[in-house]
Amino acid sequence: MKICGWGRYPQIESEGLHFETRNQLCSSLEKCAECIVYARGRSYGDSALNERVIFTDRFDKFLMFDRTKGILSCESGVTIAEIIEAFLPRGWFVCVTPGTKFVSIGGAIASDVHGKNHHKAGCFSECVISFYLMLPGGDIVRCSREENPELFHATCGGMGLTGIILEATIRLQPVRSAYIREKVIRCENLEEVLDQFEKNCEVPYSVAWIDCLAKGDDQGRSVLMLGEHADSGNLSAALERQISMPFNSPAFLINKSTVSIFNHLYYQKQQACVDGRLTSINTFFYPLDRIGHWNRMYGSKGFTQFQLVMPKEAGKKGLSTILDRISVAGLGSFLAVLKLLGPGNTNDLSFPMEGYTLALDFKIQQELFPLLDELDRIVLNYGGRSYLTKDVRMSKEVFRMGYPKWEKFSEIRERYRMNRKFNSLQSRRLGV
């Protein structure tokens, strides 16, 4: 079978293995020399690709829920979407969510995903109480901050390279409504949007769409969206019409001219400020989930997302340098997102650090990769790094400079012989 990440690049031939019980999984592990968990295929690049992959979609049962404390135990194949469907009507919502609800809990832990509230709530691992991990030989260990903490911190953000997460116990947050009270602010440039992030740092959720091609005084013009859970209202998420991309969009439709026109129109149509409107949880957190197969809009060759984080002290200067280079190259996308991040955590390979993260989608084309190599150098010069979950071409040298705990992580992999069983195209490329 042919598989790929969400970016649809690269595509490889692979053997896929399913399991429904621990014994079935253990038997499969004994038979395969090397593999990686694929889960729900929402990792953008090659971090979940191998010649042999393990699907967790059939390992998807709820196991226990404490309705007074909001503590949920489930198998690793359960998705955030399934949790929302089951528990939002009861007044519970995930503490941290990425921009899609179609990720599995195992994948959320392996990527240590973050969301629009990182500056307040941190990464997904902050709401993880414990999980069970199957090691290369089939042994199963319980991992938490108190029990096997070394494996806990290596696995959270470890890109599936420490073993197979079987079950997890996580904490949900109580909510009174399926709606977000949203404030939207149109910002004229990068300096203004960064200032607004700081002025509104006590607001639980914040994210900005940013025009990555705007120049001069307009550089970094943005639409900032702030939100908090509404105090009252219906706990049933509103039904929203779903559409789908039925085929690959012609790649030539995404070019400097079309992106510039779209960005200009999108920015101009926004009101200067909209305060207090009610927006459904699905619309606020998962706008692209309403478009099935939206990754087809970049054409048959696919796309990649370049997501960087800059320390707060680099702030405006670092991001301005990045936007300058993208604007000159003319390869930017209309899907460009800026978020405020809080302090990082102690996990070995978690992405966030205190500062700002910028994520940009690029269609795959020959001239893209030299640009991304240049952006790597700029990010490192400002003390930042790129997100492994979105990566498809980072070099070993760039990885090691951006993730100073790589040696500790590699030593753990060697000691438990994880590097002989769990590998991906990404892990081979990065030498980890």
Structure characterization notes:
It is a single chain. This protein has 432 residues and is of the alpha+beta class. The chain has a domain at 179-395: Alpha-Beta Plaits (2-Layer Sandwich). The protein is 27% helix and 26% strand. It is built from 13 helices and 21 strands. The chain has helices spanning 22-31, 80-87, 105-111, 118-121, 149-155, 190-199, 256-269, 281-285, 315-329, 368-381, 396-402, 406-415, 425-430; strands at residues 2-4, 11-13, 15-18, 36-37, 52-55, 62-66, 71-75, 92-94, 128-134, 140-143, 164-174, 179-187, 205-210, 222-229, 243-244, 273-280, 291-292, 303-311, 336-341, 355-363, 385-386. The chain has an eight-stranded antiparallel β-sheet. Strands 6, 7, 8, 9, 10 and 11 form a six-stranded antiparallel β-sheet that branches. Strand 6 and strand 7 form a beta hairpin. Helix 9 (315-329) runs antiparallel to helix 10. It is globular. The chain starts with a strand and ends with a helix. The mean pLDDT is 94.
